[in-house]
Amino acid sequence: MSKVKTARPNFVSTTNACKLCTPLGASLAFRGVEGGIPFLHGSQGCATYMRRYIISHFREPVDIASSALGEKNAIYGGGPNLKKGILNVMKKYEPKLVGVATTCLTETIGDDVPMYFSEFFKEFGDLDLPELVRVSTPSYNGTHTDGWHGAVRSMVEQLCVEDHADTGRVNILPNMVSCEDIRHLRDICDHFGIEATILPDISETLDGPALEDYVKIPEGGTPIAEIKEMSGARATIEFGRCLPRETGGTSLETRFGVANHRIGLPMGLRESDRFFEILEDVSGNPMPRRYELERGRLVDAYVDGHKYVFGKRAVVYGEEDLVVGLCAFLSEIGVDVVLAGTGSRGKGLEEAIAQVTHGTARVAPEVREAVDFHDIAAEAETLAPDLVVGHSKGYRYARDWNVPLVRVGFPIHDRFGGQRLLHLGYKGTQALFDRVVNAVIEKKQADSSIGYGYI
Fold first, then answer.
1. pLDDT value at position 8?
2. Distances 75 to 111, 112, 254, 399 between C-alpha atoms, Å
3. Is 226 helix (H, G, I), strand (E, B) or coil?
4. Whether this model's pTM surpasses 0.70
5. Is the pLDDT of residue 328 over 90?
6. 183 and 251 in contact (C-beta within 8 Å)?
7. Residues 119, 86: contact at Cβ < 8 Å?
8. pLDDT band with cut points at 50, 70 and 90 for residue 425
């Protein structure tokens, strides 16, 4: 008796996707490790495309190695290129870690990267090898955030393999946030008396100082020794309400019993409160007065700026957890999010937004997953937004609608300093609130025939 095949949903092509390449996210994560070099197992064009996006946002030189497969390798496999490429990277960069991310090509032809790794260790085990970490990142099966989270989980699982004694440290898996956010998280932990292992730490590797001589691998990044000892931490704090089921945090909890505190990105007052409450719990110390003052100033700013933003309508888009954090923040200040869009699918975005906006949102936003910007634009035009919040790829639409674009997330190509924008905690929320209020004020001035000098 023949089986009836279940109909599969048709895939719709996109022309301006609200997401980026999966191995791009993995490359960013690998870049946040001490002595780390991202390595793409695929064609040369993949590395070139990703370098272009990363450099234009971070304004830093970024090297991404490639196995540079061609037509022959697509037929016979890319194992020889992968091995030779790793050896070349070792010779040229002397890395401490090589993070290998697969691409659409190698996933489609079925390259067995774990087998290639095993062969590589057998053939070249007599050499002083760097740490090698692999992650599966076909772009047709995810977004850049999937690549980021996949790389973080792979590093945790492939480097932290032993149960270490209590280190007294706290692991922080910060999600895909800015360099300035990472620096701020480090400062917060220091003020709480917490020694933190932040994975990955892109604060210096993607936003470093000017140097007289070119450095092949910038200083900074999460020390590999600390990654190997993450099993001895007192707790893990993992940012994200739309994370995959299995993550670096869940892996540490399952394998070594490290308590995993999963919370949303600390954006807005309530989500930041949750973060600081957990810090008080894991550190055993009360909130330092400097953060009590930051919180108080934020509340005062909410009161002062309420008249400018209350009732405004916003379209929000970007990485799924960033969208959730933005919705939490905007609902607190009285802005109605009328449309929330992301390029990912199946991450529970609508439920997460409902959770963080419960009791503050006046209206429930239209939530759209797996969309491109044409989808967003077609719907947003009927919603009459007053402002758009997201990265640079939405600029053309904000311009067409004659509304301000408040730039957050990645990538920001058409403004300077995207890597230094602060979003997290009371201080980051304050900075974001000031930008939103000033965007509304500037629009009112620009539209006025009078030209308000006092608002």
1. 55
2. 10, 14, 40, 46
3. helix
4. yes
5. yes
6. no
7. no
8. very high
